[in-house]
Queue: 3 jobs
Job 1
Amino acid sequence: MENSTKEDYRIQSFDLETQKLLKTALKEPSSVNLETVSNIIVDQSLQDQVFSKEAGRICYTIVQAEAKQNNGNAFRRHLLNRLQQEFKNREETRLRSLQEWVCYVTFICNIFDYLKVNNVPMVALVHPVYDCLLRLAQPDALMNEEEVDCLMLQLHRIGDQLEKLNSQRMDELFFLLRDGFLLQEDINSMARLLLLEMLEFRAGGWMLSSTAHKYYYSELPD
């Protein structure tokens, strides 16, 4: 993860001044305004779904560099504060822009996956991440393929980690998914297929058998 090639590549969409700021933050974080850096990363993550999937890599590198440089955690603190602000506004965000909402969920799950303390995910993010995933499992969200797809991707990425930290909330999430699959008639066939895949994925210990993988992924469009 220390190799910055991917980070450099992902920041090409920024203007030159912002690219310079981010490149400096990746190497000498104490020499830049880390609140500004965290806001730039969050703002871009909410607009750009590709960036939101990779931003955790950049954040991880900055956190590691800051800890190495002066044993600091200012960047992580600013990042968590901004994530909390966005979390409070999540329902308004979802109503305003489904894409921005999906980007936010992708981003917070990405941060949960990458930013660990003593190799353990940050406890402060466990319930917010669960709250976001449970929102994606509500009946109105299950009617939006984009939200169902987002939920499946996040469960594939961090479902196993989340269950180890709070299995009761994972049970709650999967009760909703099971009920959606069995009882909700107004979801389309693709969303129903994704729901079945998630149910089978967890039942298999967060793995799919090769037969199941072949079945689901031959059904999904490229």
Job 2
Amino acid sequence: MAARGDNRVLRKPVFVKVEELKPGTEGHNLVVKVLQSDVVLEKGAATSSHLRSSRIAECLVGDETATILFTARNDQVELMKPGTTLVLRNAKIDMFKGGMRLAVDKWGRIEVTEPATFTVKEDNNLSSIEYELVDVAND
């Protein structure tokens, strides 16, 4: 169980539910079902060869506890088909216009898995909760 020839022991991933997500956190592993996917930005091939095209989709994903908007970028957009069950590894919470968005960056992973047996709880959307940054004065 050593990783790359050293003495580190790999830990088993700890999976959380969508309702447990909090603003500004990262390192989440989740199993979610895609409910809908809408491409919000699609830039074609750039005029310069070293720049690549950009695609961004906002996808509503969830589990049996809640739903949240997931921001899919570039190759991730292809995986976000409604009805697909995904395993998100090392996901993070980004704040956008006061609401939470789930994202997986280059340090994370998205895997398509067998269809989930759970029914998504659609009436608890965590992205619709607006958060406000408050400064706490130290007396």
Job 3
Amino acid sequence: MPIYESPESDDETTPRVKLFGRERPMHAVLGGGKVADVLLWRNRNVSAALLIGVTAIWFLFEVFEYNFVTLLCHISITTMLVIFIWSKTAEYFGWNRPKIPELLSNEDVFREVVSNFHWSFNQYLLKFLHIAGGNDPVHFFLINISLYIISVIGSYFDFVNLLFIGFLCMETLPYLYTQYEGEVDYHAGQMTRKMSKMYRRFDSRVLNKIPRGPVKVKKHA
């Protein structure tokens, strides 16, 4: 069990904040619907099938070096052959003919996905504008450092690998975070506190010593 007292010698305590300052549960942050259930592995069959499917596609692209058009054509040919054999067998034995899966034919599912994406995009955009405007110096520096690290990592991978790594992170990190939420929030609070202290020190020793010109007062007629 982690000890939730700061080892620092000063009287400040580690801020008890959620990661990225969120106030809602992780399930609500991810949209609170079927998409959130998949990302948090509450629907394990769908989550596992999605992970296996994307991994298989990545394997075909990177290991077998399939071209996208070639892969798409081969998948279409295989699907048509399977449906053809299934349909003829169903006619012979009196089975049910193949139908479009409900998950794909359900319009509400697609609306929910688009709505969640739109809401999440607006929230991230508002947060981005808030941080980029200098209202949160700690996160401003953290995000810029993180983006630089990602850009360095990205120079060693092609686009397909980056997409696959991003998908793996999306499928695993939210679930792992919910399992170890207390420990992650504790260490994130410590890091935020240290970054705040570093920024205050930099502000007092550097920024405040930069000479500023006199403020011009507008004269009203």
